[in-house]
Amino acid sequence: MTKILKQKLFETDVSNQINVSNVLNIIREKGPISRAEISKLSNLNKATITLIVEDLLKKQFVHEIGEGKSTGGRKPILVNFNSNAGYIIGLELNIGYINATLVNLSAEIQIDKTVSINTNENEIIKQIFQLIDDLKGLAPSSPLGIVGIGVGVSGIVSFESGIIISVPNAGIKNLPLKHMVEAHTGIYTIVDNDVNAAVIGEYMYGAGKGRNDLILVSNSSRGIGLGIYLNGKIYRGFDGFAGEMGHSTINMDGPRCNCGNRGCWELYASSKALMDLYAKTKQLNEPVSVAEIIELADKGDHIAITTLTQIGEYLGIGLTNIVNTFNPDMIILRGMIGQAGKWIFNSIHRTLMERSFVYSSSKVDIIPSLFDKNAVAIGSACEIIQQIFYTSE
Prior knowledge:
Blueprint: H1 2-10, H2 14-30, E1 33-34, H3 35-42, H4 46-58, E2 62-67, E3 77-81, E4 87-94, E5 97-104, E6 109-116, H5 121-138, E7 146-153, E8 156-158, E9 163-167, E10 172-175, H6 177-185, E11 189-193, H7 194-205, E12 214-220, E13 223-230, E14 233-234, H8 266-269, H9 271-282, H10 290-298, H11 302-326, E15 330-334, H12 342-355, H13 357-361, E16 365-368, H14 375-389
């Protein structure tokens, strides 16, 4: 399917597709750039570059933006990638809501919508189709139109088949969503786990841009999941279900988790754990949101500060296992807890220094997500961008 998509977009045979993709990616990553510089970087002769660039100009993949500096002789005409040559729809299907975005070919958001959903599978499918139709109708006119749809799902997903195996709290099981969306739209679609999508987006355009070994820790009221990006590639595991570190044991005698295990990391370090601990300490009948707890800490509330510090220590214990196992260059925290600033991060760093010999002897950057609430929707769209511009298929 990717091969058909690329042939349709580039309208060229497979043998020339490699050269076209190579030139286009040079323009995307290095532009504005002259034809002579493209020739040097691509190892293609100037005549071939001229033909390819003229074809890309005709198809509006690139545009000329004026003259560059002369190194002797005529000033070169610079070409730059046209990010608005086409658009991608990216969706996040989560418990209770769908976040839908329309992005251009540089993953820049053009439209952003979030709707609430219930737990009726048929109604959820209708809402997905309606959101896609709405975004298609609102998309600006472009040479390529909508080139792909990406869906990130908070659940167990078979990436190869695009089947959602299970989202228990949303009432979804064995749903062939990729096939259904493609049948409804006629548009190439990718369905993936939400944290895999999120880490791909952060790697390509977000907080992890330029880093080849990074881990995204998604922390929410529903638990903790990992997106693992190693050696410049997403790591899915044998069956595609890698990253369930929220259910690693940090206390063998701890409380029972809904997964059946005891003492799972997410019971101690998730957003829900933070809200529950604060409410219990303050003897409140209703939990207070993470945002409110952070605001209270910033205003000097002692219990809010102590609670955030304690959750930070538990986060640090789990992150110690991640650092010691994967030795990443960067860890990205996604979720409201990642916005807690010094109250969380100081505690995490202190715990890692005490417990991780890897962390104490090497530099691991731990930072909040750049895209945060849109990370999954943008990342899902980025998976389409990867398929178009970077796969060798």
